[in-house]
Write a structure and sequence with these properties.
4 helices; mainly alpha
Length: 109
Amino acid sequence: MNAATKKIFNQVKANVERLGVHSDIDELELERLANAIEVNRRAFKEVSKQDFSKLDKAYTQSSVYVTWKETTNIIKDLSDKFGLTPYGRKRLGKMQEFQKDENPLDKYI
């Protein structure tokens, strides 16, 4: 893990522990989430430089756009799994752990 990914990992892990949904077996999935967030940030910077009118046409999608799109899906899935979204917290019965308007994922993206 690079320094930026490790920082994200520690922040995500702290939030997941606060929810009480973390165990040692989850470390790999949390690392995967932290890595996806870091890659997503870098890819988004590149995607933002592109002409958005061409991004949804398959023949003009760049590999960085595909990377950004894939990491976005990974982030959404794993965030729901660990209760880092309102849906995930509701599913885990952990809504009281965060204020209704607070989204811990906002810190990372």
